[in-house]
Amino acid sequence: MTLASVTAAQRMTSRDLPEGLGPAVDDWVADLDHTTRSGKGMRSALFDVVYTHAGGDDEAVRAAACQALELLHEAFLVHDDVADGDDHRRGRPNLQGRTTARAADSGLPRETAAHVGMVAGLLGGDLLLVAAMGEFARLPVSAQVLHRAMAEVERAVVASIVGEYADVHGAAHGEPTTQERALAIGAAKTAAYSVTLPLVLGVVLAGGPEELIPPLRETGRHLGTAYQVIDDVLGVFGDPAVTGKSNEGDLVRRAPTVLLAFASATEEWPRIDTALGGTGFGRARAERVHPDRADSDRADPGRAHPDPATARSLLAECGAREHALGLAEDLVTAARAALDSPAVPHDLRGALDTHLATALERTR
């Protein structure tokens, strides 16, 4: 069995929360639980494949590692929504969205309610991150193995955090990025913890051969980056009813993706730039946090406003979508090539091939 997801409440109820903080904290914890229960379980599945094929047979280690990996993912999803200013995830209000709505319903001004929601998301992600790190730190393995495992966890967490900042910083400036930088951001913020960490951790915790780690690390980087490229495509061209997220957010904030990197070198770029508003993340974010100021801003003829539908159409027309899909396919091919290393057993290569194939078939 592969652990698909871990709810926040399951992890938090095993710890004592301070008493006397009021019903708002109870509501917040309930919202955190409500919004973190529908993961795909990809990270625990990848870990499970490598752990078992590398000789791991301790069910307690396997279960604890899977729980920690899924909690880490949930933590980064909550933080990602805060960073992007999103209030929905998986087709329903996320922690930030639910807390903002609850605060507004209580009579708080919209700006204050938005601030409370943002802080709720930030701190909720922190809670999940601490819970994940606690699970990793308590893995039932020897001190030597635990030390090595924690070094890999730290490496992945640091990469994801700095990758997220690079993403937000790039969007804030609104200038088109290069394809190389867009791929580097994807490799850092997504591949490092989503794919590379589960693969490498499977070897470390199973006591597998050291020579297996380099090809799996390379496979993880390529596959995880392909996963992010597909995610970027779905973020613009996906069906919100299927993906559970808006297909306008990345366009409005001008996320530094391979889509915009490619488009910026085409003749369509001036029109795409105009459709994107030419003002980057800062304006879009300001309107979300300070909606009461939006009307006055719209009255300013010097300010452009994003037209996501037109931008999406022009991106498809200039070939950005097909380019990104081709790039993702090339990355999966590179991941397969890394698995061809003599250090990777044939049966493990075959077991991982299914995950490589499904990376290009994602619809959400």
Shape: flat
Which range best describes the helical content: under 10%, 10-25%, 25-40%, 40-55%, 55-70% or over 70%? over 70%
Mean of the pLDDT scores? 88
Q: List unreliable stretches of 5+ residues.
A: 1-6, 280-303
| Number of H- or I-type helical stretches | 18
Using only C-alpha atoms, the radius of gyration works out to: 21 Å
**Structural class per helix/strand content?**
mainly alpha
The overall strand count is 2
Major sheet attributes = 2 strands, antiparallel
Describe this structure in words.
The chain is mainly alpha-helical and 364 residues long. 71% of the residues lie in helices and 1% in strands. The chain contains 18 helices and 2 strands. The chain has helices at 8-12, 23-34, 42-53, 59-84, 95-105, 110-137, 143-173, 179-206, 213-237, 240-243, 249-252, 258-263, 269-275, 280-289, 294-298, 308-317, 320-339, 346-359; strands at residues 88-89, 92-93. A two-stranded antiparallel sheet has the order 1-2. A hairpin with a 2-residue loop joins strand 1 and strand 2. Helix 4 (59-84) packs antiparallel against helix 8. The protein is flat.
Short précis:
The protein is mainly α and 364 residues long. 71% of the residues lie in helices and 1% in strands. Helix 17 (320-339) runs antiparallel to helix 18 (346-359).
